[in-house]
Amino acid sequence: MLAAYIDRVRDMRAKAGAGLDPKAYKDAMKTLEDEMMNLKNTYERELSRLRLKDVKQKLHFNCKFFFGSIGLSDRFCFAFQ
């Protein structure tokens, strides 16, 4: 996805130097900007998902440790899985 974006930017630069129609260039740049924002949003969603997964794993571990240390069942820790 990122490699395709980079290739398109290089292609746009080459066309801009070759006298591309200004409106077509502007439209193409808008398309690239939109694709870049979509890529950024996808990346940020994936980072958020991974961070949440990491937090849940740490909470589950801490819950099991806490309940185990006071001699109680860790059955309440299911919420953090």
Task: Please describe the topology of this protein.
Blueprint: H1 2-17, H2 22-69
Helix pairs in contact: 1-2
Describe the structure.
- It is rod-shaped and about 75 Å long.
- The protein is mainly α and 81 residues long.
- The protein contains 2 helices and no strands.
- Helix 1 runs antiparallel to helix 2 (22-69).
Question: Which features does this protein show?
Answer:
single chain; 81 residues; mainly alpha; 79% helix; rod-shaped
Q: What general outline do the C-alpha atoms trace?
A: rod-shaped
What is the averaged pLDDT score? 79
Give the SSE order as H and E letters: HH
- How many β strands by DSSP? 0
Q: Runs with pLDDT <50, length 5+?
A: none
Task: State the major sheet.
Answer: none
Radius of gyration: 24 Å
* Percent helix: over 70%
Query: How many angstroms does the end-to-end distance come to?
Result: 32 Å
Query: How much of the residues is beta strand, in percent?
Result: under 5%
Q: How many helical elements?
A: 2
Class based on secondary structure composition and strand pairing? mainly alpha
In a few lines, what is going on in this structure?
The chain is mainly α and about 80 residues long. The chain contains two helices and no strands. The longest helix has about 50 residues, at about 20-70.
